[in-house]
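name: query_chain
kind: protein
chains: 1
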Amino acid sequence: MPTQTSGLSARVVACIEGGRTRLEERRLPAPVGGEILLSLRVSGLCGTDLFKLLNRAPAPGDVLGHELVGTVEALGPEARGFEIGDRVVVPHHVACGECALCLRGSGTLCAAFRENLLHPGGFSDRVLVRERAARLAARKVPSHVSDEAAVFLEPAACVLRGISRAGLSFLDRAPEGKRPPACAVVLGAGSMGLLHLLVLRSVHPGLPVVISDRVPERLELARDLGASIAREPGDAGLRAVVKELTGGLGADAVFDTVGGAGLLKLALALAREGGTTVLFAHAPRGERADFELNDLFKHERRVVGTYSSTLAEQEEVYRLIVSGRLDASPLVTHRLPLSRFQEGVDLSLARKALKVLLVPG
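structure:
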């Protein structure tokens, strides 16, 4: 039954000058219309959050955080489909679905998509979910799915969008027993790189996946999670291994989860003729690529940028998580209270943490 409350207080991790943060108390309005109020269970610290903090992008007062699982605490009078006590996973962006970009399949570039529908943000012990997100994007978490698995819905949907644009559909069209030798390469074995590995294994089982990173412990984890081969990017044998896996062709798709012109050159060197390089990560501000254009033109290589996810990718990832085909919870290395947010940032930047979840406390 829809329930209203008077305003409630929330503890939030607020941005201040210079990319720093502090914990502060705020008042939140009661949910109205179709809004829902969640009490935080877990919120994931994302590479985008780190990028914004390092580049001092947030305005003073902003609250970051967009990978969220919470418990329904209150409902607006027009909210439907949820009850008090439900566990809910919800992303922060929802496109309008009607503009010229949405109708062309570019919903992540829709003007309405830029609006943050989590107020004040995911790094808060109470979060108000605006009506459009509550109606279209919020989903109940079944009892058999852990918070640690559900919280990956939003980032895994972003990964799935890149995979869907990588030109791997030939794997599904090949007759049984006649699949051509193929492989994908993931540059970077941080949380997003390893999430690429897990999503690739869930949607293209049997596809060899090569992981490259400079941190030995992360390469070992990649092997444990099912990578066919895990090597450092400077290893002269990396390209030879990819060639061997693909009968001399090269990788069908290369996913850059690190960013920067140097990684793009490596990706293009690893990709086969007609292959796709997917740019998934932020590059340093102002950095420009420099490579031989004829390598793309004459060999029909593609470079694809991919950003965020639409409702379609979120729905598909939700099904994968609920079915058990995708469980990214092994990537979680730390659970920290909101009051230790900066510790989580420092651990992530020092590569001492893989995935940090912030919890109330």
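note: Residues 1-5 have pLDDT under 50 and may be disordered.
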